[in-house]
Amino acid sequence: MTPWVHIPQLLSAGITIGAIYALVGLGFVTIARASQIINFAQGEFVMLGGVITFSLLKGAGLSYPLAAIVAVISVVIIGFLLHILVVYPLRKTSIPILLIATLGASIFISNTTALVFGTLPKALPSFSGNLPLLIWGVPITPQSMWVLGATFLLLICLYLLSHRTLMGKAMEASSTDPLGADLSGISRNLMVFLAFGVSAGMGAIAGIFITPIFYTSYHTGTLIGLKGFVAAVLGGWGKNSGAILGGFVLGVVESLSVAFIPSGYKDAVAFVILLLILHFRPKGILGSPFIDSRRW
Amino acid sequence: MKGRSWMVLLVSLVIIVSMIWPSIASSAERSPYKIGVNLELTGPWAEVAKTVKMAMVMEVERINGMGGVNGHPIELVIEDNGFDLSRAAANMTKFARDKEILVVAGPFEDPLQATTRAIAEREGITNIIFCPSNPMVRGLKQPWSFNIAQSDIIVSQKLVDLCLARGYKKVLVFPASHPLAQSLAEYCKRFGEEKGIQVIISKETHKHTDIDMTPQLIKLKPIIDGEKVDAFYACTAGPPGPIVCKNLRALGIKTPIIATHAFGFHFIIDLGGEAMEGVEFPAAKPVVPYQLDEDDPVRPIITDFDKRMKARYGVRADQIAGYGHDTTWLIYDAMKRCQGNVTRAQFRDALENTKGLKSCNGMYNYSPTDHDGLTKRDLVFVRIEGRKFVRIKFPEFE
């Protein structure tokens, strides 16, 4: 049996999971662009989105859309708190210290979640049924369509935010030329603060959309955060388009790899790709504004 | 000068009396028998392991209320191992070095048992492990270690019975990559082929951390369609179980799913939702306490335990809480059969001679060659219907 017969089906699975990696990667990039910080608590935002929606839906008995909106708002507040309590007090230290601080915050968030919401895995119901739709003979679940739709909607919003609003342009400016931004009277602290909110909100939305497909638990944020980070680096660290491309490339390659190698190595594929890319093209597929391309 | 020496005498008298007093007071009742409990009270399995602790605390209080073991109360010394190998080993060593502790219950999860069993052998203390033994540790024939849960052998036997009862001739096994799931798959193949069932073990496996099994299942789909398999065996435990079912149905595959006894938890149904409908598996009796036969000898024990769990903690009894219950009563039963004051060696021999102890999960019989306790008669067939566990009966296979 040739492995080629599985390709369309694997491709559709890869695109769904790639959309998720793209969303998580975008969260990393949003913060990195504003402050050059790698926020390792990004995966926890995704986890919190799912877990809080679940507890509001099952525990407090809210309707699904209301629970989702409340969850996104609370995760945005947690994102703001992360900035106020962890990042802002350390703003005058070096980047590696901030990086370790976000790692510590991620462990804190995941363990607090375990204490507050329990350790059992949780799943949300699908938005619209479970019957797979047949598209060119390939069964696709409605939830996958929702994930793709949400990803594209968020991408458009993010594009409009960074190119069509003053706030977005100010965020952009403070990342590309900090000194110039300071001189033009842009408060960089405020920009980083807002970036944490935006990225937390994106993470939470990603979490709500993917929880019906997979499941969520207090410790699932770490792996998904890492994959999102790989996606962002793969596409070009610091570029929105890079994170999106990186996410889809990672998802599709990971999924297609199963056709040719035993599935036990699926998770390793992401990291092997990352190593290869970093070795041969350190600035990522689309190039990174943070890495001086003349050196490579 | 004279006044000061009187003071010294008085103070030393007070000290001496206060030191002796507790031992005078406690000699009235007998010294407690201590049990070490080494559990995953934090980490991914915390919520499940907590029910074991609840059950043990409740049952020990009950035993002590009935007068304890020949007048000696039982005392639990509970330590958390955080699902961490080094902490589980440290707890085990600590318990073993405490001469007052007679037996250690736990750990709960399979990956920790090999280490604590080795320590138990070295230190000469009985170790009762909640999870089933796996073929690697079973092969060692360690005299000091005992397992509570249904072993892979009896679950596979019961699963083959289920296939025979349903008339499945060809079964595809999709195992997880950990040793217990691998051995479940192997035994299923061995017992199945003895009864003329064709068992195909998939070369694709999955890890317990996988959140999406779609790629593996896509690769299996041509086998399911091409070979016309009658049933798909989701040979796994924990969250991957419902994920396999969800992914399989999302691919439009309608083959009946059979599963392991690890599916017998309500959170598994909640995770899988509609995809879990119609899944059948051999289950422990506490999964369906009120659907057991009226004349089943363990029915009154489970229903009574279930009522007490609900009254005290507000949770229903499941197989895991049942393991806590069973462990406590196995220890009590073995201690009662010891002559005089219980020692570690005496306790081990008594536990090994446990015969026909009826408890939540069934009838426990240990012997020098069998440290697993239960048999396939202690399992029932269960089907998930309307988001509930429903017992199905096949008279010729009960």
Looking at the overall shape, the CATH architecture of the largest domain in chain B is 3-Layer(aba) Sandwich
Amount of helix of chain B = 40-55%
Task: Please work out how many helical segments of chain A DSSP would assign.
Answer: 11
Instruction: Give the spatial strand order of the biggest sheet of chain B.
Output: 2-1-3-4-5
Fourth CATH level, the homologous superfamily of the largest domain in chain B? Response regulator
- CATH fold-level topology of the largest domain in chain B: Rossmann fold
Mean pLDDT of chain B: 89
Query: Pairing-aware structural class of the strands and helices of chain B?
Result: alpha/beta
Helix content of chain A: over 70%
Radius of gyration of chain B: 24 Å
The total count of helices of chain B amounts to 13
Radius of gyration of chain A: 19 Å
**Unreliable residue runs of chain A:** none
CATH topology of chain A: ABC transporter involved in vitamin B12 uptake, BtuC
CATH architecture of chain A: Orthogonal Bundle
- The termini of chain A sit apart by 43 Å
Largest interface: A-B, 39 and 40 residues
The fraction of residues in strands of chain B falls at 15-25%
What's the CATH class of the largest domain in chain B, please? Alpha Beta
- The stretches of 5 or more residues of chain B where confidence is low (pLDDT under 50) are 23-28
Let me know the average pLDDT of chain A.
86
Features:
heterodimer, A: 296 residues, mainly alpha, ABC transporter involved in vitamin B12 uptake, BtuC, two-stranded antiparallel sheet, 11 helices, B: 398 residues, alpha/beta, Rossmann fold, 2 domains, four-stranded parallel beta sheet
Describe the structure.
- The complex is a heterodimer of chains A (296) and B (398).
- With 296 residues, chain A is an all-alpha fold.
- Chain A contains eleven helices and two strands.
- Chain A has helices at 7-35, 42-58, 64-87, 95-117, 142-164, 166-176, 178-183, 188-210, 221-236, 240-260, 266-280, and strands at residues 133-135, 138-140.
- In chain A, strands 1-2 form a two-stranded antiparallel sheet.
- In chain B, helix 4 links the parallel strand 3 (101-105) and strand 4 (126-129).
- In chain B, helix 6 crosses helix 7 (179-194), helix 9 (240-250) packs parallel to helix 10 (266-272) and helix 12 crosses helix 13 (344-352).
- Chain B is elongated and about 100 Å long.
- Chain B starts with a helix and ends in a 6-residue tail after the last strand.
